[in-house]
């Protein structure tokens, strides 16, 4: 995969893993229009490639993402031409960015440290796997600013349930890493100095799994609730058959019979990881 040139993102490709570092540390990695455009373009490229199988999203300078860039958003609203609604257009684009992230065929890891408010919390809830440090601070502060968490709300509800989402959104409560883990925002909790090691541990677990099978499994999981029950069995069976009759399924089953690692995980065993 050819990486695009970005100013607000730092990209590192290591074999089939892409590390995305949101790189506006002075603004606690708040999402401005340029970052949103660069990230959306990158996510669209990821949808179209199978060269990458794991994506790790992290923030520079000890913070994950402080949410939307409020100063820029205010300036956009004040400069609006009569008859146009750039605020609505900007917000809708953000919604599609979050949906694109959620629906990536790659497995995604969000590594949350420091601040993760608004859109930062949205990223954490869109990722497949979220790691949070104990000292992280998270929340949905939108109502205290006179606006709504319009685009992240669906993902927060899916992640923590409607009752908890109501509490977090309507009180604008801030919560820490341990609470994020207990609420279900994050599946992994680590010490403040343990993020690097935890990322590698989770990444090793992910790369033990077959990439096409992981993508299909993710598609099935995300379809729950959106496909009628009467259609779900056929939908899942089609995905299962394509995998079982395809190269990954044949290799995985042959490796099981031959009592060896499958081709996609052999390097893990050779290096002593993932056992």
UniProtKB/TrEMBL annotation:
InterPro entries: ClpP/crotonase-like_dom_sf, Enoyl-CoA_hydra/iso, Enoyl-CoA_hydra_C, Enoyl-CoA_Hydratase/Isomerase. It holds the Pfam family ECH_1. It comes from the Bacteria. Belongs to the enoyl-CoA hydratase/isomerase family. This is Enoyl-CoA hydratase/isomerase family protein. It comes from Bradyrhizobium campsiandrae. The lineage of its organism: Bacteria, Pseudomonadati, Pseudomonadota, Alphaproteobacteria, Hyphomicrobiales.
